[in-house]
Amino acid sequence: MLSYFFVMFQHNHIFWVFTAAYLNVSPSLIYPGENFEESPLKRTFKSKVLARYPENIEWNPFDQDAVNMLCMPKGLSFRTQADQRDPQFHSFIITKEDGSRTYGFVHTFYEQVTSPQICSAMQTLYQMHNAEHTSTNPPSSSSSSSSSMDSLASSLDEADSPTSSSSSSSSRADGTYDSTRDTLYVSKALCLITPMPFMHACRRFLSQLHRAITVSSAPPLPLESYVYNILYEVPLPTSGRSLKFHGVYEPIVCQRPGPGELPLADFPLAEAFSLLGVENLVQVFTCTLLEMQILLYSQDYQRLMTVAESITTLLFPFQWQHVYVPILPASLLHFLDAPVPYLMGLQSKEGTDRSKLELPQEANLCFVDIDNHYIELPEDFPWFPNKSEFIQELREVLLSFGITDNTGAPPRTRSRPSSTPSTPGRERKTTAFRQLEDDGRNGNLAGEELAVLELLKGNATLERLQALTKRTGVTVARVEALRAGVKPQDTEGQGGRTAAEEDELRNARLNVQLREVFASRFATMFADYEAFVIQSAPDLESWLTNREQMHNFDKASFLSDQPEPYLPFLSHFIETQMFATFIDNKIMSQWEEKEALLRVFDARIDKARLYNVRAPSLRSSNYQRCSILKECVQAMEQRLMKIDHTAIHPHLLDMKIGQGKHEQGFFPKLQADVLNTGPTNNKWSHRTATAQRKKDRHKQQTEHLNLDNDLKEKYMQEARSLGKNLRQPKLSDLSPAVIAQTNWKFVEGLLKECRLKTKRMLVEKMGREAVELGHGEANITGLEENTLIASLCDLLERIWSHGLQVKQGKSALWSHLLHYQAREEKLEQQHSESPVSNVPERRKSDCCVAVPSLRVSLFQDMRHIQNMSEIKTDVGRARAWIRLSLEKKLLSQHLKQLLSRQALTKKLYKRYAFLRCEEEKEQFLYHLLSLNAVDYFCFTSVFTTIMIPYRVVIIPIKKLSNAMTTSNPWVCVSGELGDSGIMQIPKNVLEMTFDVQNLGKLTTVQLGHDNAGLLAKWLVDCVMVRNEITGHTYRFPCGRWLGKGVDDGSLERVLIGELVLPSGEEDSGRGCCTPPLQRSPSQTRRISLTSLSGRGSKPTSAQIQEAIGEAVNNIIKHFHKPEKERGSLTVLLCGENSLVAALEQFFHHGFKSARLFQKTVFVWDFVEKAVAYMESADQMGDLQETAEPLGMTCQSFCHYVNAINSTPRNIGKDGKFQLLVCLGARDRLLLQWLPLLVECPVILRMYEDTALLRDRTTVNALIGVLETLHDFPITLEASLVKGIDL
Q: Which residues form the PLAT domain (predicted)?
């Protein structure tokens, strides 16, 4: 069960070296960041392992550096009789680079210093300290550090460590230590190292071991017997069984869950919920799932460990894949600079204020102040699905165990101006200290018990009475228990169990039920995950070698199958490393044994499927409560109530008698010779060998894979670490070389992450089929795109935070940009010239020379962001700037310009920083440059309420008409988010700018005039509109006349837009760019349809029918997309290759459009003649004989045509036909109107015999195709139906 037992203490020899150095104090003995201004008793010193048993274990080597740091993370401390010296318990975890974990459990107590040399050395230090302070207060020896990590260390050590206020000697009042009057104590620790987290069992064993040296009488056996027993004679409980073994005074029980149960977790979840409150804990849990940086902050090491282990335990079936250091030793504070996701715990000192804590990076940080019950959340934080119902269920479980929810302070986000707790400093300090002092769960005696013990210690009469009762054989258990620092253990609960066992059983029940609620949520959300796993590799070897190129999970299909409210969270979560590892484990389970957590999770999903076969509720967002809360605890209860195995009792060992002599208050030196080797004839000792033989057999069975084991292991490690930066820091006393190596790993990891992220963004945006076929059909949803871009923003923040000299503001990137802006503005003033080169705007069409170029300017983009009052924080500004640069395809160029000022970069960053590694920096900028191959609207689509300046340029065809018109022109620009309203264009002006709330992607432009003056006719080639912030330029082709008596007599046209490719990208980017929007019909097509002498070949009947089918299919596909991803329906109804365009071709086929008296005949003329015939027939009474439905259809058709004709808009005959088709599609009337037109006698005069409209079979086929549109709610843009009330 146990790996090691050891004792830690400051060795006399080392301490003597320290004092002999006198003023030249050896820096190796003082912890980094130690404040020399503090009195010697408040300083901390380096600790050392005094003894460990056994010396080493082959399969689990002893990591002395890590153990040194984590047993006493702040170092060794001294106390006097006036200080608080209660024993403390805490646990720790050592995570190795391969991800395996070892647990440590530590019992720290204070032992009297008996060495006169150490006492006199401490007095000498005090004399030196007092001499310095009584002189003329010299300036502080520690100069202001340039490192943000140094400032963090100093801020942590500003406050004093807690001392007892109940009593203080006169010597302490004088600020001195007198070895003749004061008793000196030093901290000492007993520690157990185990492979599994048996926290309660280890805590009870260590507590009993310490109790054995605090009581006056010697324990029943020498201490070596108990240590030997737990090291060699107490086995690890087998899966699904319980085990009882014996401590010094009482038996101890531990158990392991069975193969179908949730894995072992012994840390009290109730404590984590009580410390943070349910809502706060769920929020921190969500941050952990999304792999943000989590920093826990508390005075108490055990609280840090409890909260960290609770959160990671609740992740089932997923596992935290990044840096995990629940207790960060003082010497490793620089590791908070890590530009990777992490979960770390930082010890606070009493009175340290959060506002004084300078952290290297906070853009993506979740800060958890455990002692003050409040958290700070990152910006743009998605909620956990069904969060309120989930919290309610957790509260009900806690309430069923009598625990009310401590709601804590409400969570704070980074946008809040202050992060200081609401309680005043002094009051909060007192409250937090009292809570810590009274908190029995942290190994402390409650306040009342402490008072009783103090009373007993100071009362000679009570002491004599107690001694008398002892001699008569009566024990006062309450007093003995108080002395030992534990509650009475002899009160029996149900079934002969002690109160402690009852408490343990209750905690175990609560743990299981809380974990089941969390596991049930994941089982509901991922019930069908297997259907989306892509298993394309034929064998393990090919999968491992091609892991990086493979897509293992169909994310788009999975998200499309989820309820809408879940999407913000799930779209982020499926991008995490923990989800990727979960899917990798699922795929590898085809060829090797299933990973334990996956096996349990899959079994639960299979069981759920048996009970409800693909329940329809899986698609709904209705909350499903956990239904197995009572059943889930039964197996565990049975194990604890009926013990399966009892270990060998501790017994006398073959050792020299008298060496471990009992001396109250002192832990003896144990006999190493008997503790370093275990028994040879113990049946438990063969377990390890048996397990090893099983492993060897399994290895032989896998040899059929024909893959060399070393090579396979290499591939496995590479595949599993894909996307990770650094698994775990090595906890050792770090030399500059080791720190440099660690930072180099970070640089390599950041570059790799950048490469994978940009590649993923490109592939997802363009689509796999698009890349193969050479076109850019986008198959990524806006939600996924937004998630990937948010992830890129996070990566850039982490890169800019790496190796900072001094932290200034929450966002390192925005801080760098501000420094650059200030420096360039200073240079601009000095040289009186702009530092920004007038690079022509790259978003300029080669054909639109009339649109003035937009200057590429890093400054201008920054000013746009700074002028956005909606953004309140630096983190928000940095993200907005990244989105704007990405949308403008200038991100790589802007960052290259920012980093070109090397003097500034050197001033802001340390030598090891990513931004100062030239080769990696160049590769990083190259990866970002690749994103220019696709179009993003990540700025336009997110900041929807900002005011944006637009520029409109009207380009007439000068060869065929006047450049200007004497009439009064107007324009109205519409987009996905709204329209600008009608704006008059000043006379003799073809260009204007206007400010309006963000219109989104532009869809249509309405252009018209009032036909006033002599030169009212106007032939317009196109209209250009540009967003002056993003630089997106849209071209709205027209190619038609506006004027009475020319073309179709239209004074107003609705034009459909197309996004103009940036110049220079037309050729290079055609095969890999996202597709252009459809646009308004071109001039050539219009003329060919409406004019007898039209140029170009007319489409055949087969081509026309194919065009109609394609147009209808596009509309159906539009409605099958998620609502937020659909784009503009107007384009599909009225643009090129649209429904209107296809039906125009159908109606023009065989149309007799000869010029009668030099006047062109339009399809609308046929429609009007048909209406006239129907109305006259109605008046004559002919229609009354027809069937009732047909008569109603005639009335609706005439009503719609007359309403369009009576509109005040002058939209021309083609515009009216377009409007009729759109209204007919919207109101599902098109297929009723077609038979009317076919039956109307007018068709004989205006259509040839071969016309499609006169072919009954073709018309019936067309009606069948149009009928498919009836299932969808078609809504028309306001620009199309303006002035029509139908």
A: 948-1056
